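Support request, please re-run this one:
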Amino acid sequence: MAKQNKTDLQNVPAAAAGFINRVISKMRYRRRVCRDVRAELAAHFEDELRGCKNDEERQQKALEVIAGFGDVKMLAALLRRAKKRCRPLWRTVVARSLQTAGLLILCLILYTVWFSTGKPTISIDYTAMLNQMSRPDLRDEDNAWPSYKKAASLYIKPADFEPDDPNFESLYCSAGSFDVRPKLADLNENEKQEVKKWVELNQPAWQGFETAAAKSYCYREYAHDPNDEERWLLSIMLPHISDIRSVATVGIWRSRIAAEQGRIHQSLDDCIAVARAGSHWQGKGTLVEQLVGTAMTRMACREIVSILEANNPPADLLRQTCRQLSDIYPNGYTPMNVEGERLGFMDTVQHVFTKGGLGGGHLIPGAWAYIADEPIYSLEGQDKMLFMPLYAAESMIHARRDKTIAKANEFYSRQEKYTKLTPYQRQAANIETAGDMINSLPRHKFFLLHMLTPALDRVAELGFRGKASYQATLTILALKRFQAEKGQHPDNLDELLTAGFLDELPMDPYSDKPLVYKKTDDNFSLYSLGPNFQDDAGHPGKTEKGQIADWRDNGDTVFWPVPKTR
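Re-run finished. Output below.
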Protein backbone atom coordinates (compact mmCIF):
# COMPACT_ATOMS: atom_id res chain seq x y z
CA MET A 1 0.00 0.00 0.00
CA ALA A 2 2.84 2.38 0.94
CA LYS A 3 4.60 1.52 -2.32
CA GLN A 4 1.45 2.29 -4.30
CA ASN A 5 1.08 5.67 -2.54
CA LYS A 6 4.66 6.56 -3.39
CA THR A 7 4.15 5.60 -7.04
CA ASP A 8 1.04 7.80 -7.32
CA LEU A 9 2.72 10.92 -5.88
CA GLN A 10 6.34 10.66 -7.09
CA ASN A 11 5.71 12.90 -10.12
CA VAL A 12 4.08 15.79 -8.20
CA PRO A 13 5.67 18.42 -5.99
CA ALA A 14 5.84 17.87 -2.23
CA ALA A 15 3.14 20.51 -1.63
CA ALA A 16 0.77 18.67 -3.96
CA ALA A 17 1.62 15.30 -2.38
CA GLY A 18 0.94 16.68 1.11
CA PHE A 19 -2.36 18.19 -0.02
CA ILE A 20 -3.50 14.93 -1.62
CA ASN A 21 -2.66 12.94 1.53
CA ARG A 22 -4.63 15.39 3.70
CA VAL A 23 -7.68 15.06 1.40
CA ILE A 24 -7.50 11.26 1.49
CA SER A 25 -7.20 11.34 5.26
CA LYS A 26 -10.29 13.53 5.57
CA MET A 27 -12.33 11.32 3.24
CA ARG A 28 -12.33 8.38 5.66
CA TYR A 29 -13.65 6.00 3.07
CA ARG A 30 -12.83 2.54 1.82
CA ARG A 31 -9.16 1.93 0.96
CA ARG A 32 -9.81 0.99 -2.62
CA VAL A 33 -11.81 4.15 -3.27
CA CYS A 34 -9.17 6.30 -1.53
CA ARG A 35 -6.46 4.75 -3.70
CA ASP A 36 -8.45 5.62 -6.84
CA VAL A 37 -9.04 9.21 -5.66
CA ARG A 38 -5.31 9.60 -4.87
CA ALA A 39 -4.43 8.46 -8.37
CA GLU A 40 -7.00 10.80 -9.90
CA LEU A 41 -5.77 13.82 -7.92
CA ALA A 42 -2.15 13.01 -8.76
CA ALA A 43 -3.04 12.75 -12.45
CA HIS A 44 -4.87 16.11 -12.23
CA PHE A 45 -1.77 17.80 -10.77
CA GLU A 46 0.44 16.19 -13.43
CA ASP A 47 -1.80 17.54 -16.19
CA GLU A 48 -1.72 21.04 -14.69
CA LEU A 49 2.07 20.96 -14.28
CA ARG A 50 2.89 19.57 -17.73
CA GLY A 51 3.88 22.96 -19.22
CA CYS A 52 6.16 24.02 -16.33
CA LYS A 53 9.91 24.37 -17.24
CA ASN A 54 11.56 24.01 -13.82
CA ASP A 55 10.87 22.86 -10.25
CA GLU A 56 10.26 26.40 -8.98
CA GLU A 57 7.58 26.95 -11.59
CA ARG A 58 6.08 23.50 -10.83
CA GLN A 59 5.95 24.32 -7.10
CA GLN A 60 4.27 27.68 -7.77
CA LYS A 61 1.72 26.13 -10.14
CA ALA A 62 0.94 23.38 -7.61
CA LEU A 63 0.17 25.97 -4.94
CA GLU A 64 -2.20 27.74 -7.34
CA VAL A 65 -4.01 24.48 -8.07
CA ILE A 66 -4.27 23.73 -4.34
CA ALA A 67 -5.70 27.17 -3.71
CA GLY A 68 -8.26 26.52 -6.46
CA PHE A 69 -9.48 23.38 -4.70
CA GLY A 70 -10.39 25.36 -1.58
CA ASP A 71 -11.01 23.86 1.91
CA VAL A 72 -9.56 20.37 2.34
CA LYS A 73 -12.44 19.06 4.47
CA MET A 74 -15.04 20.35 2.03
CA LEU A 75 -13.18 18.79 -0.90
CA ALA A 76 -12.91 15.47 0.94
CA ALA A 77 -16.67 15.50 1.67
CA LEU A 78 -17.52 16.30 -1.96
CA LEU A 79 -15.29 13.55 -3.23
CA ARG A 80 -16.75 11.04 -0.81
CA ARG A 81 -20.30 12.00 -1.83
CA ALA A 82 -19.43 11.77 -5.51
CA LYS A 83 -17.97 8.32 -5.08
CA LYS A 84 -21.10 7.16 -3.27
CA ARG A 85 -23.28 8.45 -6.12
CA CYS A 86 -21.18 6.71 -8.66
CA ARG A 87 -21.03 3.30 -7.01
CA PRO A 88 -23.12 0.41 -8.48
CA LEU A 89 -26.73 -0.03 -7.39
CA TRP A 90 -26.08 -3.40 -5.82
CA ARG A 91 -23.35 -1.90 -3.65
CA THR A 92 -25.73 0.86 -2.53
CA VAL A 93 -28.38 -1.67 -1.66
CA VAL A 94 -25.91 -3.75 0.32
CA ALA A 95 -24.60 -0.71 2.14
CA ARG A 96 -28.05 0.55 3.01
CA SER A 97 -29.09 -2.93 4.11
CA LEU A 98 -26.08 -3.27 6.38
CA GLN A 99 -26.73 0.15 7.85
CA THR A 100 -30.38 -0.69 8.46
CA ALA A 101 -29.49 -4.07 9.97
CA GLY A 102 -26.98 -2.44 12.26
CA LEU A 103 -29.52 0.11 13.38
CA LEU A 104 -32.10 -2.60 14.01
CA ILE A 105 -29.60 -4.68 15.97
CA LEU A 106 -28.74 -1.66 18.07
CA CYS A 107 -32.43 -0.98 18.71
CA LEU A 108 -33.00 -4.65 19.54
CA ILE A 109 -30.13 -4.63 22.01
CA LEU A 110 -31.45 -1.50 23.69
CA TYR A 111 -34.99 -2.92 23.73
CA THR A 112 -33.78 -6.24 25.15
CA VAL A 113 -31.87 -4.47 27.91
CA TRP A 114 -34.97 -2.43 28.77
CA PHE A 115 -37.20 -5.51 28.45
CA SER A 116 -34.97 -7.65 30.66
CA THR A 117 -34.60 -5.12 33.44
CA GLY A 118 -38.35 -4.80 34.04
CA LYS A 119 -39.57 -5.19 37.62
CA PRO A 120 -42.92 -6.51 38.90
CA THR A 121 -45.30 -4.36 40.91
CA ILE A 122 -46.97 -6.28 43.74
CA SER A 123 -50.11 -4.27 44.41
CA ILE A 124 -52.76 -6.85 45.45
CA ASP A 125 -52.60 -9.15 48.49
CA TYR A 126 -54.16 -12.28 47.01
CA THR A 127 -53.35 -14.28 50.15
CA ALA A 128 -55.59 -11.94 52.14
CA MET A 129 -58.30 -12.39 49.49
CA LEU A 130 -58.00 -16.18 49.81
CA ASN A 131 -58.31 -15.92 53.59
CA GLN A 132 -61.34 -13.68 53.28
CA MET A 133 -62.95 -16.13 50.87
CA SER A 134 -62.35 -19.11 53.18
CA ARG A 135 -63.19 -17.66 56.57
CA PRO A 136 -66.78 -18.33 57.74
CA ASP A 137 -68.65 -15.86 59.91
CA LEU A 138 -68.84 -18.12 62.98
CA ARG A 139 -67.55 -18.16 66.54
CA ASP A 140 -63.84 -18.84 67.02
CA GLU A 141 -64.57 -21.46 69.68
CA ASP A 142 -66.38 -23.53 67.02
CA ASN A 143 -63.23 -23.64 64.87
CA ALA A 144 -61.84 -27.17 64.52
CA TRP A 145 -58.35 -26.17 63.38
CA PRO A 146 -56.64 -26.06 66.84
CA SER A 147 -57.83 -29.62 67.51
CA TYR A 148 -56.71 -30.83 64.07
CA LYS A 149 -53.32 -29.22 64.64
CA LYS A 150 -52.99 -31.02 67.95
CA ALA A 151 -54.06 -34.32 66.39
CA ALA A 152 -51.45 -33.96 63.63
CA SER A 153 -48.72 -33.22 66.17
CA LEU A 154 -49.61 -36.32 68.21
CA TYR A 155 -49.86 -38.67 65.25
CA ILE A 156 -47.36 -41.55 65.26
CA LYS A 157 -46.40 -42.59 61.75
CA PRO A 158 -45.92 -46.25 60.81
CA ALA A 159 -42.24 -45.53 60.22
CA ASP A 160 -41.92 -44.31 63.84
CA PHE A 161 -43.91 -47.22 65.26
CA GLU A 162 -41.21 -49.89 64.70
CA PRO A 163 -43.57 -52.87 64.51
CA ASP A 164 -42.43 -56.46 64.68
CA ASP A 165 -44.15 -57.24 61.37
CA PRO A 166 -42.17 -55.86 58.38
CA ASN A 167 -45.37 -55.82 56.28
CA PHE A 168 -47.16 -53.50 58.68
CA GLU A 169 -46.56 -50.29 56.70
CA SER A 170 -47.98 -51.81 53.51
CA LEU A 171 -51.09 -52.84 55.45
CA TYR A 172 -51.45 -49.33 56.77
CA CYS A 173 -51.12 -47.76 53.32
CA SER A 174 -53.77 -49.98 51.76
CA ALA A 175 -56.35 -49.04 54.37
CA GLY A 176 -57.06 -45.73 52.71
CA SER A 177 -56.93 -47.07 49.18
CA PHE A 178 -60.09 -47.15 47.05
CA ASP A 179 -59.15 -50.29 45.15
CA VAL A 180 -57.56 -52.50 47.81
CA ARG A 181 -59.34 -52.73 51.17
CA PRO A 182 -58.04 -55.43 53.51
CA LYS A 183 -60.35 -56.28 56.35
CA LEU A 184 -59.28 -57.18 59.82
CA ALA A 185 -60.53 -60.72 59.23
CA ASP A 186 -58.11 -61.05 56.29
CA LEU A 187 -55.06 -60.49 58.54
CA ASN A 188 -53.26 -63.14 60.54
CA GLU A 189 -53.17 -62.87 64.31
CA ASN A 190 -49.76 -61.21 64.40
CA GLU A 191 -50.81 -58.58 61.86
CA LYS A 192 -53.97 -57.88 63.83
CA GLN A 193 -52.00 -57.31 67.00
CA GLU A 194 -49.62 -54.93 65.24
CA VAL A 195 -52.53 -52.90 63.86
CA LYS A 196 -54.23 -52.79 67.27
CA LYS A 197 -51.02 -51.61 69.00
CA TRP A 198 -50.54 -48.88 66.42
CA VAL A 199 -54.16 -47.73 66.77
CA GLU A 200 -53.78 -47.71 70.56
CA LEU A 201 -50.61 -45.63 70.35
CA ASN A 202 -52.50 -43.12 68.20
CA GLN A 203 -55.44 -42.86 70.60
CA PRO A 204 -54.42 -39.31 71.74
CA ALA A 205 -54.22 -38.21 68.09
CA TRP A 206 -57.62 -39.76 67.37
CA GLN A 207 -59.21 -38.01 70.36
CA GLY A 208 -57.98 -34.67 69.02
CA PHE A 209 -59.29 -35.60 65.57
CA GLU A 210 -62.66 -36.63 66.98
CA THR A 211 -62.93 -33.38 68.92
CA ALA A 212 -62.15 -31.43 65.74
CA ALA A 213 -64.70 -33.39 63.69
CA ALA A 214 -67.44 -32.43 66.14
CA LYS A 215 -66.84 -28.70 65.52
CA SER A 216 -69.04 -26.77 63.12
CA TYR A 217 -66.24 -25.55 60.81
CA CYS A 218 -62.48 -25.51 60.26
CA TYR A 219 -60.55 -22.36 59.41
CA ARG A 220 -56.80 -21.96 59.24
CA GLU A 221 -55.38 -18.68 57.99
CA TYR A 222 -53.17 -19.06 54.95
CA ALA A 223 -49.72 -17.62 55.60
CA HIS A 224 -46.20 -17.57 54.17
CA ASP A 225 -42.93 -18.71 55.64
CA PRO A 226 -41.44 -15.71 57.52
CA ASN A 227 -38.27 -16.11 55.42
CA ASP A 228 -40.23 -16.01 52.16
CA GLU A 229 -39.48 -12.60 50.65
CA GLU A 230 -41.33 -13.24 47.38
CA ARG A 231 -44.61 -14.27 49.06
CA TRP A 232 -46.22 -15.92 46.05
CA LEU A 233 -49.69 -17.25 46.70
CA LEU A 234 -48.44 -20.54 45.24
CA SER A 235 -45.93 -20.78 48.11
CA ILE A 236 -48.34 -20.47 51.04
CA MET A 237 -47.78 -23.00 53.79
CA LEU A 238 -50.49 -25.66 53.74
CA PRO A 239 -51.63 -27.36 56.94
CA HIS A 240 -50.35 -30.82 57.83
CA ILE A 241 -53.13 -32.19 55.69
CA SER A 242 -51.28 -35.45 55.01
CA ASP A 243 -50.98 -36.23 58.73
CA ILE A 244 -54.63 -35.26 59.27
CA ARG A 245 -55.69 -37.70 56.56
CA SER A 246 -53.48 -40.33 58.20
CA VAL A 247 -55.24 -39.84 61.51
CA ALA A 248 -58.49 -40.40 59.59
CA THR A 249 -57.02 -43.75 58.52
CA VAL A 250 -56.43 -44.51 62.21
CA GLY A 251 -60.18 -43.95 62.62
CA ILE A 252 -60.95 -46.43 59.84
CA TRP A 253 -58.82 -49.13 61.46
CA ARG A 254 -60.34 -48.25 64.82
CA SER A 255 -63.77 -48.71 63.29
CA ARG A 256 -62.78 -52.14 61.97
CA ILE A 257 -61.50 -53.24 65.36
CA ALA A 258 -64.75 -52.11 67.01
CA ALA A 259 -66.83 -53.94 64.37
CA GLU A 260 -64.87 -57.17 64.93
CA GLN A 261 -65.58 -56.89 68.64
CA GLY A 262 -69.29 -56.42 68.00
CA ARG A 263 -69.37 -52.72 68.90
CA ILE A 264 -71.20 -51.73 65.72
CA HIS A 265 -72.49 -48.45 67.18
CA GLN A 266 -68.92 -47.35 67.97
CA SER A 267 -67.71 -48.56 64.58
CA LEU A 268 -70.26 -46.45 62.72
CA ASP A 269 -69.60 -43.43 64.96
CA ASP A 270 -65.91 -43.53 64.04
CA CYS A 271 -66.82 -43.54 60.34
CA ILE A 272 -69.17 -40.59 60.86
CA ALA A 273 -66.32 -38.68 62.55
CA VAL A 274 -64.08 -39.28 59.51
CA ALA A 275 -66.83 -38.21 57.11
CA ARG A 276 -67.55 -35.09 59.15
CA ALA A 277 -63.84 -34.22 59.15
CA GLY A 278 -63.74 -34.66 55.40
CA SER A 279 -66.50 -32.07 54.99
CA HIS A 280 -64.35 -29.55 56.91
CA TRP A 281 -61.71 -29.59 54.16
CA GLN A 282 -64.07 -29.44 51.20
CA GLY A 283 -64.79 -26.02 49.75
CA LYS A 284 -61.41 -24.69 50.90
CA GLY A 285 -59.28 -22.28 48.94
CA THR A 286 -56.81 -24.83 47.58
CA LEU A 287 -57.64 -27.87 45.47
CA VAL A 288 -55.26 -30.02 47.56
CA GLU A 289 -57.39 -29.50 50.67
CA GLN A 290 -60.61 -30.08 48.75
CA LEU A 291 -59.36 -33.33 47.23
CA VAL A 292 -58.15 -34.63 50.59
CA GLY A 293 -61.50 -33.74 52.18
CA THR A 294 -63.39 -35.53 49.40
CA ALA A 295 -61.14 -38.58 49.77
CA MET A 296 -61.73 -38.72 53.54
CA THR A 297 -65.52 -38.62 53.13
CA ARG A 298 -65.42 -41.29 50.43
CA MET A 299 -63.21 -43.45 52.65
CA ALA A 300 -65.72 -43.16 55.48
CA CYS A 301 -68.68 -43.95 53.21
CA ARG A 302 -66.94 -47.00 51.84
CA GLU A 303 -66.29 -48.24 55.36
CA ILE A 304 -69.92 -47.71 56.42
CA VAL A 305 -71.05 -49.82 53.47
CA SER A 306 -68.50 -52.48 54.45
CA ILE A 307 -69.90 -52.55 58.00
CA LEU A 308 -73.44 -52.94 56.66
CA GLU A 309 -72.28 -55.77 54.43
CA ALA A 310 -70.92 -57.78 57.37
CA ASN A 311 -73.54 -56.89 59.99
CA ASN A 312 -77.26 -56.27 60.42
CA PRO A 313 -77.55 -53.22 62.67
CA PRO A 314 -80.97 -52.55 64.23
CA ALA A 315 -83.35 -50.13 62.55
CA ASP A 316 -82.83 -47.39 65.15
CA LEU A 317 -79.05 -47.44 64.68
CA LEU A 318 -79.50 -47.34 60.91
CA ARG A 319 -81.86 -44.38 61.24
CA GLN A 320 -79.45 -42.57 63.58
CA THR A 321 -76.44 -43.18 61.33
CA CYS A 322 -78.36 -42.04 58.24
CA ARG A 323 -79.41 -38.85 60.01
CA GLN A 324 -75.88 -38.16 61.26
CA LEU A 325 -74.45 -38.65 57.78
CA SER A 326 -77.18 -36.51 56.20
CA ASP A 327 -76.57 -33.66 58.69
CA ILE A 328 -72.95 -33.33 57.58
CA TYR A 329 -74.08 -31.38 54.51
CA PRO A 330 -77.12 -29.34 55.58
CA ASN A 331 -76.91 -27.28 52.38
CA GLY A 332 -76.11 -30.17 50.07
CA TYR A 333 -72.86 -31.89 49.19
CA THR A 334 -70.04 -29.35 48.81
CA PRO A 335 -68.99 -28.87 45.15
CA MET A 336 -65.44 -28.23 44.03
CA ASN A 337 -64.34 -24.60 44.13
CA VAL A 338 -61.82 -23.30 41.55
CA GLU A 339 -61.72 -19.66 42.70
CA GLY A 340 -58.55 -20.26 44.70
CA GLU A 341 -56.83 -21.47 41.53
CA ARG A 342 -57.83 -18.28 39.73
CA LEU A 343 -56.44 -16.13 42.55
CA GLY A 344 -53.21 -18.12 42.42
CA PHE A 345 -52.84 -17.44 38.70
CA MET A 346 -53.57 -13.72 39.08
CA ASP A 347 -51.00 -13.47 41.87
CA THR A 348 -48.47 -15.18 39.60
CA VAL A 349 -49.20 -12.60 36.88
CA GLN A 350 -48.32 -9.71 39.18
CA HIS A 351 -45.07 -11.45 40.13
CA VAL A 352 -43.88 -12.17 36.57
CA PHE A 353 -45.23 -9.21 34.55
CA THR A 354 -44.37 -5.55 34.58
CA LYS A 355 -47.28 -3.19 35.08
CA GLY A 356 -48.26 -0.46 32.62
CA GLY A 357 -47.16 0.43 29.15
CA LEU A 358 -48.07 -1.26 25.89
CA GLY A 359 -50.46 -4.13 26.51
CA GLY A 360 -50.56 -3.49 30.24
CA GLY A 361 -47.04 -4.83 30.79
CA HIS A 362 -44.73 -7.56 29.55
CA LEU A 363 -43.52 -10.89 30.89
CA ILE A 364 -40.22 -10.45 32.70
CA PRO A 365 -37.52 -12.79 31.31
CA GLY A 366 -36.69 -15.54 33.76
CA ALA A 367 -39.16 -14.39 36.43
CA TRP A 368 -41.46 -17.31 35.65
CA ALA A 369 -38.63 -19.85 36.02
CA TYR A 370 -39.58 -20.06 39.72
CA ILE A 371 -42.79 -21.83 38.85
CA ALA A 372 -41.29 -23.86 36.01
CA ASP A 373 -38.39 -25.36 37.98
CA GLU A 374 -36.05 -23.94 35.35
CA PRO A 375 -32.27 -24.14 35.99
CA ILE A 376 -31.70 -20.38 35.88
CA TYR A 377 -32.31 -19.98 39.61
CA SER A 378 -29.63 -22.53 40.46
CA LEU A 379 -27.00 -20.74 38.36
CA GLU A 380 -24.89 -17.69 39.11
CA GLY A 381 -22.86 -15.10 37.27
CA GLN A 382 -21.93 -15.77 33.67
CA ASP A 383 -23.65 -19.18 33.60
CA LYS A 384 -26.90 -17.50 34.53
CA MET A 385 -26.46 -14.80 31.89
CA LEU A 386 -26.12 -17.45 29.17
CA PHE A 387 -29.79 -18.32 29.63
CA MET A 388 -31.06 -14.75 29.59
CA PRO A 389 -31.31 -14.36 25.77
CA LEU A 390 -33.47 -17.50 25.66
CA TYR A 391 -35.72 -16.26 28.46
CA ALA A 392 -35.91 -12.81 26.86
CA ALA A 393 -36.97 -14.32 23.52
CA GLU A 394 -39.64 -16.51 25.15
CA SER A 395 -40.98 -13.59 27.16
CA MET A 396 -41.14 -11.36 24.06
CA ILE A 397 -43.26 -13.98 22.29
CA HIS A 398 -45.69 -14.31 25.20
CA ALA A 399 -48.92 -12.32 25.18
CA ARG A 400 -48.89 -9.07 27.13
CA ARG A 401 -50.37 -8.72 30.59
CA ASP A 402 -53.86 -7.50 29.65
CA LYS A 403 -54.43 -10.26 27.12
CA THR A 404 -53.06 -12.92 29.49
CA ILE A 405 -55.40 -11.82 32.27
CA ALA A 406 -58.35 -11.69 29.89
CA LYS A 407 -57.71 -15.25 28.67
CA ALA A 408 -57.24 -16.51 32.23
CA ASN A 409 -60.48 -14.91 33.42
CA GLU A 410 -62.30 -16.35 30.42
CA PHE A 411 -60.92 -19.82 31.19
CA TYR A 412 -61.68 -19.79 34.92
CA SER A 413 -65.12 -18.25 34.44
CA ARG A 414 -66.04 -21.04 32.04
CA GLN A 415 -64.57 -23.66 34.38
CA GLU A 416 -66.49 -22.26 37.34
CA LYS A 417 -69.66 -22.79 35.31
CA TYR A 418 -68.60 -26.18 33.98
CA THR A 419 -67.69 -27.61 37.40
CA LYS A 420 -71.39 -27.37 38.24
CA LEU A 421 -72.26 -29.59 35.28
CA THR A 422 -72.31 -33.34 35.78
CA PRO A 423 -70.17 -35.54 33.52
CA TYR A 424 -73.38 -36.56 31.74
CA GLN A 425 -74.37 -32.94 31.07
CA ARG A 426 -70.90 -32.14 29.75
CA GLN A 427 -70.96 -35.20 27.51
CA ALA A 428 -74.48 -34.50 26.23
CA ALA A 429 -73.62 -30.88 25.42
CA ASN A 430 -70.27 -31.92 23.92
CA ILE A 431 -68.47 -29.32 26.01
CA GLU A 432 -64.74 -29.21 25.41
CA THR A 433 -62.50 -30.19 28.28
CA ALA A 434 -60.33 -27.76 30.21
CA GLY A 435 -57.31 -29.37 28.56
CA ASP A 436 -58.79 -28.81 25.11
CA MET A 437 -59.52 -25.18 25.96
CA ILE A 438 -55.91 -24.58 26.98
CA ASN A 439 -54.46 -26.56 24.09
CA SER A 440 -56.44 -24.41 21.66
CA LEU A 441 -54.31 -21.43 22.72
CA PRO A 442 -50.91 -20.94 21.02
CA ARG A 443 -48.41 -22.64 23.31
CA HIS A 444 -45.64 -20.05 23.12
CA LYS A 445 -47.98 -17.08 23.30
CA PHE A 446 -49.78 -18.39 26.39
CA PHE A 447 -47.29 -20.82 27.88
CA LEU A 448 -48.01 -19.44 31.37
CA LEU A 449 -51.60 -20.74 31.12
CA HIS A 450 -50.34 -24.04 29.70
CA MET A 451 -47.94 -24.28 32.63
CA LEU A 452 -50.24 -23.42 35.54
CA THR A 453 -53.79 -24.54 34.84
CA PRO A 454 -54.64 -27.85 36.55
CA ALA A 455 -56.81 -30.67 35.20
CA LEU A 456 -60.04 -29.07 36.39
CA ASP A 457 -62.24 -31.53 34.49
CA ARG A 458 -60.75 -34.36 36.52
CA VAL A 459 -61.16 -32.38 39.74
CA ALA A 460 -64.84 -31.65 39.03
CA GLU A 461 -65.46 -35.29 38.14
CA LEU A 462 -63.91 -36.44 41.43
CA GLY A 463 -66.31 -34.12 43.22
CA PHE A 464 -69.34 -35.67 41.52
CA ARG A 465 -68.04 -39.16 42.24
CA GLY A 466 -67.68 -38.23 45.90
CA LYS A 467 -71.24 -36.95 45.93
CA ALA A 468 -72.53 -40.15 44.29
CA SER A 469 -70.67 -42.27 46.87
CA TYR A 470 -72.11 -40.18 49.70
CA GLN A 471 -75.69 -40.37 48.40
CA ALA A 472 -75.33 -44.08 47.68
CA THR A 473 -74.28 -44.67 51.31
CA LEU A 474 -77.32 -42.75 52.58
CA THR A 475 -79.51 -44.83 50.27
CA ILE A 476 -78.02 -48.15 51.41
CA LEU A 477 -78.60 -47.14 55.05
CA ALA A 478 -82.22 -46.29 54.18
CA LEU A 479 -82.71 -49.56 52.26
CA LYS A 480 -81.30 -51.60 55.13
CA ARG A 481 -83.56 -49.75 57.56
CA PHE A 482 -86.58 -50.30 55.28
CA GLN A 483 -85.86 -54.03 55.24
CA ALA A 484 -85.32 -54.12 59.04
CA GLU A 485 -88.64 -52.39 59.72
CA LYS A 486 -90.83 -53.83 56.96
CA GLY A 487 -89.25 -57.21 56.39
CA GLN A 488 -88.55 -56.62 52.70
CA HIS A 489 -86.82 -54.25 50.35
CA PRO A 490 -88.82 -51.59 48.51
CA ASP A 491 -89.80 -52.12 44.88
CA ASN A 492 -88.24 -48.79 43.94
CA LEU A 493 -86.39 -45.89 45.52
CA ASP A 494 -89.46 -43.65 45.50
CA GLU A 495 -90.82 -45.76 48.37
CA LEU A 496 -87.94 -44.52 50.52
CA LEU A 497 -89.05 -40.94 49.92
CA THR A 498 -92.66 -41.75 50.71
CA ALA A 499 -91.65 -43.51 53.92
CA GLY A 500 -89.46 -40.57 54.96
CA PHE A 501 -86.30 -42.67 54.96
CA LEU A 502 -84.61 -40.40 52.38
CA ASP A 503 -84.86 -36.67 51.73
CA GLU A 504 -83.90 -36.99 48.05
CA LEU A 505 -83.11 -39.62 45.48
CA PRO A 506 -79.43 -40.46 44.89
CA MET A 507 -78.42 -39.11 41.49
CA ASP A 508 -76.03 -40.73 39.06
CA PRO A 509 -73.66 -38.09 37.59
CA TYR A 510 -73.22 -40.31 34.53
CA SER A 511 -76.92 -40.46 33.60
CA ASP A 512 -78.54 -37.52 35.44
CA LYS A 513 -81.07 -40.08 36.64
CA PRO A 514 -81.28 -41.82 40.01
CA LEU A 515 -78.71 -44.51 40.67
CA VAL A 516 -79.84 -47.82 39.24
CA TYR A 517 -81.71 -49.82 41.90
CA LYS A 518 -82.81 -53.40 41.38
CA LYS A 519 -84.63 -55.55 43.91
CA THR A 520 -83.75 -59.23 44.00
CA ASP A 521 -85.24 -62.14 45.98
CA ASP A 522 -83.44 -61.43 49.23
CA ASN A 523 -81.15 -58.52 48.35
CA PHE A 524 -80.77 -55.52 46.04
CA SER A 525 -78.21 -53.87 43.77
CA LEU A 526 -77.34 -50.19 43.56
CA TYR A 527 -74.91 -48.83 41.01
CA SER A 528 -73.84 -45.97 38.75
CA LEU A 529 -73.39 -46.32 35.00
CA GLY A 530 -69.85 -45.02 35.32
CA PRO A 531 -67.64 -43.11 32.85
CA ASN A 532 -68.81 -45.13 29.82
CA PHE A 533 -72.36 -43.75 30.34
CA GLN A 534 -73.76 -47.26 29.65
CA ASP A 535 -75.74 -49.65 31.82
CA ASP A 536 -73.63 -52.81 32.07
CA ALA A 537 -76.29 -54.60 34.13
CA GLY A 538 -74.39 -54.10 37.37
CA HIS A 539 -71.17 -55.72 36.18
CA PRO A 540 -68.32 -53.72 37.77
CA GLY A 541 -65.45 -52.25 35.82
CA LYS A 542 -61.94 -53.65 36.06
CA THR A 543 -58.36 -52.45 35.89
CA GLU A 544 -55.88 -53.54 33.25
CA LYS A 545 -54.82 -56.31 35.65
CA GLY A 546 -58.37 -57.60 35.92
CA GLN A 547 -59.06 -56.24 39.41
CA ILE A 548 -62.52 -54.86 40.14
CA ALA A 549 -62.35 -51.11 40.68
CA ASP A 550 -64.67 -48.13 40.88
CA TRP A 551 -65.26 -45.60 38.11
CA ARG A 552 -63.77 -47.57 35.23
CA ASP A 553 -64.95 -47.04 31.67
CA ASN A 554 -65.48 -50.76 31.04
CA GLY A 555 -68.28 -51.40 33.53
CA ASP A 556 -70.54 -50.00 36.23
CA THR A 557 -69.51 -48.63 39.63
CA VAL A 558 -71.32 -50.95 42.02
CA PHE A 559 -72.10 -49.73 45.52
CA TRP A 560 -74.17 -52.75 46.58
CA PRO A 561 -73.62 -55.61 46.86
CA VAL A 562 -70.00 -54.88 47.56
CA PRO A 563 -67.87 -56.60 44.88
CA LYS A 564 -65.96 -59.34 46.68
CA THR A 565 -62.58 -58.66 45.09
CA ARG A 566 -62.64 -54.89 45.42
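The radius of gyration is 41 Å. The chain is about 60% helix and 5% strand.
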